[in-house]
Amino acid sequence: GAVVSQHPSWVICKSGTSVKIECRSLDFQATTMFWYRQFPKQSLMLMATSNEGSKATYEQGVEKDKFLINHASLTLSTLTVTSAHPEDSSFYICSAPQRNTDTQYFGPGTRLTVL
Amino acid sequence: SQQGEEDPQALSIQEGENATMNCSYKTSINNLQWYRQNSGRGLVHLILIRSNEREKHSGRLRVTLDTSKKSSSLLITASRAADTASYFCATSYSGGGADGLTFGKGTHLIIQP
Predict the structure, then answer these.
(1) Are A21 and A90 in contact (CB under 8 A)?
(2) Residue A104: predicted pLDDT
(3) What is the distance of C-alpha B108 from the center of its chain?
């Protein structure tokens, strides 16, 4: 099946710094990718939709200036958590739908810990 | 996006028994998907059922969908220790990968050896 990768798999940073997370579709092109956040023992919550060649669309309650999304190419989307704080510590997961299918392929996730 | 409910939230059964998990959702959908997540890892896609389908099978998995009740169930037959994981249903309103998925709260399944 289709493969989606994320980098890094985990990151620890100091409060106030910015962290960039990459999401790549390895064997297919994705004009749209999705970013989710998952807090411990909770479900996944959709944060935003990343659109190649246009601005990302954010879910209600997600600050677009804090979570910067750039869909640089048909295989790469990046999520930058700016001025990270401990409450941003979470598991961030991206997904990409393969064209003309309903199935979304998820990356392995990035665990962010902000000290 | 509003999350659906899943029950039970946790389920512990003996190896070899069948496990049933239920999921309810709130809006009309194009399709519903079930995913498995091992602790601290990414999601593995299990099965997708479209709104015009009522039942689907894949190996030891059986999924049903009742759009009138806005509910779905996942049955895992002859469970194995390796099935221990969290299971989530996720719904798509538009289909075709056009929208992000709305996830249920999940069921944590433990298979006792």
Answers:
(1) no
(2) 86
(3) 11
Q: What is the mean pLDDT of residues B38-65?
A: 94
Do B53 and B65 touch, CB atoms closer than 8 A?
yes
Closest CB to B48 among A46, A49, A102: A102
Number of domains in chain B: 1
Confidence of residue A72 (pLDDT cuts 50, 70, 90): confident
Give residue B29's pLDDT: 92
Rounded to the nearest 5 degrees, what angle is found at the Cα of B41, between the Cα atoms of A17 and B70?
Answer: 110
Cα four-point dihedral sign B55, B28, B76, A5: positive
pLDDT (tens digit per residue) in A39-67: 988 999 999 999 998 899 999 999 999 99
Question: Tokens 């960039």, residue?
Answer: A20
A68 vs chain B: nearest CA distance in angstroms? 18
Q: Count how many pairs of residues, chain A against chain B, have C-beta atoms within 8 Å.
A: 75
Domain ranges, residue B93: 5-112
Do the beta carbons of residue A41 and residue B37 sit within 8 Å?
Answer: no
Out of B88, B100, B105, closest to residue A49 by CB = B100
Comparing A27 with B16, the larger pLDDT belongs to B16
Is the pLDDT at B1 greater than 60, yes or no?
no
The torsion angle over the Cα atoms of residues B80, B86, B91 and B97, rounded to 10 degrees, is -90
CATH code for position B15: 2.60.40.10
The candidate with the shortest Cα–Cα distance to B104, out of B18, B45, B33, B51, is: B33
Nearest CA distance, B28 vs chain A (angstrom):
16
